[in-house]
Specification:
The chain is an all-alpha fold. It is built from two helices and no strands. The chain is 86% helix and 0% strand. The two termini are 15 Å apart.
């Protein structure tokens, strides 16, 4: 249970990233969308490797 606050923090960050990604796609800003996806992948990978 000690990991729950960390996990919730991660989920909040992911939700914010997803909202930004959705906005970029709606605005057809595919360069920004690609950048956001890259950041999300990197952060997730680092989070997995840290554990």
């Amino acid at each position: 249970m000690d990991d729950m606050p960390v996990f919730k923090s991660f989920l909040r960050e992911q939700l914010e990233n997803q909202k930004e990604l959705e906005k970029a796609i709606k605005e057809k800003d595919y360069e920004k969308a690609e950048e956001l996806i890259g950041k999300m992948i990197d952060r997730t990978q680092k989070g997995i490797e840290d554990n």
